[in-house]
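hey so i finaly got around to running the thing on RNA polymerase subunit sigma from Streptomyces fagopyri. pasting the sequence first so u can double check i didnt mess up the copy paste, my clipboard has been acting weird all day
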Amino acid sequence: MQGPRGQQNPGDNIHETVGAYALGILDDAEATAFEAHLATCEWCGQQLDELAGMEPMLAALADLPAAQGTPAIGESLSARPSPRLAERLVDEVSQRRAVKRRRGMYLVAAAAALIIGGPLTVMAVSGGDGGTKTPAAMATSPAKAAFQTMTDKVTATDPKTSVKATVAVEPKDWGTHAVLQLSNVKGPLKCSLIAVGKNGERETVTSWSVPDWGYGIPGATTEQAKNPLYVHGGAAFKPNQIDHFEVMTFDGKQLVQVKA
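ok and heres what it spat out for the 3d tokens, dont ask me to read them lol
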């Protein structure tokens, strides 16, 4: 077991006693001396925290039945292991714990990549980031993929604003999943998709921003402006409880209305 960096480790280095102390195999004088050292040694304190629980593990082993013709496991553990053997056991446990910690960090990093990558993928499909879209990014957009598989769709174009919208819906146990395909809208704007119930109640399904170049603009010279916007969200209404959908700007202007 290695001591703290930058410190020599002679054979009687007190730092090496942490494993034997964790296993409870020091005599009273040795334990007292180590505890005095522990009060001022942060490294040994960290090692002791990592090794907590080893003594109960060995005690559990002592209760296991022995194979025929061999001494009972309890008998084999009745003699205290040497401090050097204890250190080797401690090293192995510490190494395995370190591997588990590294794996945990990798999982956290992978999850963060998925969380960050999801919105970026959606922006690539809609042209929201101004970057180059790839076929792979377009194929993995959750909103666009859902829109392509949903069959219940209604389209409308507002005669004044010329904004075109198609809303696809599907029932869920919790209400309605709705996907909006929006075209011929220029920014800058902040908008929301509103579900209006037959009882007059209004629920915001989702919100987004429209950049200067817009979405789904006919004859546009850039890809991001040519592509329509795909956004999705949910409402507590059941599909048969919705009268219509409205695409509204944050300042209260209706861009288009779509019957449910």
